[in-house]
User: Fold this.
Amino acid sequence: MMTSKLENIISCLFVYIISIFFFFSSSNFSYDSAVFPKVIASILAVLNTILLFQTFIKREKVKQKEGKKIFLPKKTIFTLIFTMVYVLLINIGGFILLTPIYIFIISSELGYRNKTISIIIALATTFTIYLVFKVVLGVPVPSGFLFS
Assistant:
């Protein structure tokens, strides 16, 4: 069984590989287009380095027990399954219809009980994302078969 320290080291190596890949992949872009991916890749590498230093400096406080099983709470499983369903149905129902429903159901399932605020947040988030992508960036959002 891997220790927490070994898991962090392996994770850090994986993140370094991803950072380097994105940094050098963005070299094919124009200068303006390459700035953002390079900055993000660099920030990711710096934060990863901090995690790596913390891994070596920090002592493991609790020894892990042999045979420790991974436990996924019901809310996590529901969120993963519901997200997959949302992704599968977005081309049928469309972004405008399914996104507020998705946000409302996920927030309710994760424990937020004020239904009025949940509806307002779901609608406002959907409207904001729509405005940013469709109006500001000119990127279309899925309209779905129902609204085509």
Observations:
- The CA atoms of residues 112 and 118 lie 8 Å apart.
- The two ends are 53 Å apart (CA to CA).
- DSSP finds five helices and no strands in the chain.
- The chain has a mean pLDDT of 83.
